[in-house]
Amino acid sequence: MNPTVIQSFEDFEKYNGQELGTSDYFKINQSQINLFADATYDHQWIHTDPERAKSEGAFGNTIAHGYLTLSIVPHLWDQIVRVQNLKMMINYGIESLRFAQAVTVDSEVRLVAKLKNVANLRGTVKAEVEVKLEIKDQKKPAFTGVLVFLYHFL
């Protein structure tokens, strides 16, 4: 997929209220889960102990941390939209984030993004993006929410 290129507020405005696209699928493996556990000091067995997760867990296997699934958004977002001509970009907030389904190890996920709203705030562009992280072959998404970005164009 070729990402949409945005270089100004006017470019963003063209997509207001529209779906921006869908990323490629991304596989979440046990090594990534373990590294995330190390980085966040969250070594709960449902994430890091495959044998115990298979025998005692509710999901039949280890699961990715919810925040791990959220942390891959920049990688997947970059496949959908490339914002260029930037002085700076700020992750401003997350609204209405809901983790709807666990992502089991070796699942593939992809991001679907829609531009909910864009506003020019005296030269700073505020973009509200509705996101959904889909899990391959699952009806329910891993999460849904609205990400808010601030873009400062050159």
UniProtKB/TrEMBL annotation:
UniProt xrefs under InterPro entries: HotDog_dom_sf (IPR029069), MaoC-like_dom (IPR002539), NodN-like (IPR039375)
Q: Which Pfam families match?
A: MaoC_dehydratas (PF01575)
Q: Which residues cross the membrane?
A: none
- Residues forming the MaoC-like domain are 12-132
Gene3D superfamilies (UniProt xref): Hotdog Thioesterase
Q: Which domain of life is it from?
A: Bacteria
Q: Which PANTHER family match?
A: MAOC-LIKE DEHYDRATASE DOMAIN-CONTAINING PROTEIN
State the name under which the record lists this protein: MaoC family dehydratase
What organism, scientifically named, is this protein from?
A: Algoriphagus oliviformis
The lineage, from the top, is:
Bacteria, Pseudomonadati, Bacteroidota, Cytophagia, Cytophagales
